[in-house]
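Reviewers of the previous submission asked for a worked example of the structure-prediction workflow described in the proposal, so we include one complete record here. The input consisted solely of the amino acid sequence. No template or homolog information was supplied to the procedure at any stage.
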Amino acid sequence: MKNGVTVAICESHNEAEKVVKELQDSGFDMKKLSIIGKDYHEEDKVIGFYNTDDRMKSWGSAGAFWGGIWGLIFGAGFFLIPGLGPVMLAGPIVSSLIGGLEGALIVGGLSALGAALVGIGIPKDSVIRYETALKADKFLVIAHGTAEDMEHAKKIMSGSSATEVHVHSGESVSA
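From that input alone, the workflow returned the following structure tokens.
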């Protein structure tokens, strides 16, 4: 069965958290969910962060959001991406990004994050839309899986606080 992704663009970490909770409440497999967002703002006065037992501990206005997400979603990372700045990632997208970095994956002038998004089945023209959203401090909630998983996620995301929801069917999707 062909895999792909459903992507929701959320205006804030509060909206992204609502989308995640609605997906969790609907029975969506949290191991098939990724989140990408910028967490650092100067006014947050972040003291620091550390990773303990696959759970992120953070201080700042979005610390509770990321702390809660780490408890639900497997895998997390904090990356400084040229052109985007500090970005937090959680879920299967992390291994796709790391794989791209380790393999020196360059996809048509895209950033490492853009290459990771292409690697999970998102077309290049959509990658630009998502990177622009991230630059504007928005969040991406990405549901990975089969056509059935994608439709389930689309239904939940479309009825949530997400600004936009898009489905991308890909030939090869990292899970």
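DSSP finds six helices and eight strands in the chain. We consider this example representative of the routine output the project will generate in years two and three.
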